[in-house]
Design goal:
Length: 267
């Protein structure tokens, strides 16, 4: 029996699906059942997991707290069939025990999960390179700019995302609020889950306030053309692109419309 449909929710998710499919991703639909080791690999504790009283499979007796175990199982299957790469997303619910300790139904959270593994989708050139963190950032931009219509940022946080490789582990922020994580899967986590190393993973929550509810507004064309300025500066290698753009926005005048980094020179 289907529950009541949240007004506008399906339309919002449909827009998100279209944006990701346009970037070449395939949608996956997985069961919500999982085993404890797979959930623990992504930081879940047994106390926050929701057990099933009568599971269909004794090996997967918990409700998932993350979408990634199912997506990584899809990757494992794709590589078992000798595919050179896989690029998939899933939009679904995760289940959590209430934080306040109250009894009853678990908290349900809509999430978006993305995995990019192996070779990119081959075009006319052939010999496609592997997916990398920049591709993952592009997928995040497609989701946030194209569907959520919210600003986003990646903040390096290797200590807070231990299941990702330290060189790429990031927290995802949407409109300045923590929303998930992204990065290359840690080799130890990949070996633990029996998936190829180098898989790019991303997961963000899709709570309703993430979506901008007001419609797009038409405004008059500006009287004068835009003025673009290039600025070059020298930074230590550890300074991230996100920190540079954030500082530029903070220092810029009120008529500043956009800040972007378009090139990096070394040596």
């Amino acid at each position: 029996t289907a529950g009541p449909r949240t007004p506008g929710n399906w339309d919002r998710l449909a827009t998100l699906r279209r944006a990701l499919i346009a970037r070449g991703l395939s949608e996956a639909v997985n069961l919500v059942f999982a085993d404890l080791p797979a959930l623990q690999a992504f930081g879940a504790t047994e106390a926050e997991c929701v057990p099933l009283r009568n599971p269909l499979d004794a090996g997967r007796a918990l409700l998932r707290t993350t979408l990634l175990p199912g997506l990584l199982a899809d990757v494992r299957l794709a590589f078992a069939h000798r595919l050179p790469g896989a690029a998939m997303f899933e939009i679904g619910k995760t289940f959590h025990r209430p934080a306040d300790g109250r009894r009853g139904l678990p908290d349900e959270v809509w999430r978006l999960g993305i995995v990019l593994a192996g070779k990119r989708i081959e075009g006319l050139a052939g010999n496609a390179p592997d997916w990398d963190p920049y591709d993952l950032a592009g997928m995040l931009a497609a989701a946030t700019d194209g569907a959520l219509r919210r600003s986003w940022a990646l903040r390096a946080a290797p200590d807070r995302v231990p299941w990702c490789h330290p060189r790429s582990a990031c927290l995802v922020e949407i409109d300045g609020a923590a929303a998930g994580f992204a990065g290359e899967i840690h080799p130890a986590t990949a070996d633990r889950l029996d998936v190829p190393r180098g898989v790019q993973i991303l997961e963000i929550d899709l709570r309703p306030e993430r979506f901008r509810s007001e419609p797009d507004k038409v405004r008059e064309l500006p009287r004068f053309p835009a003025v673009r300025r290039d600025l070059a500066a020298v930074f230590e290698e550890a300074v991230t692109a996100g920190a540079v753009t954030a500082e530029a926005r903070a220092l810029g005048p009120d008529f500043l419309e956009e800040v972007s980094i378009f090139d990096v020179y070394r040596g």
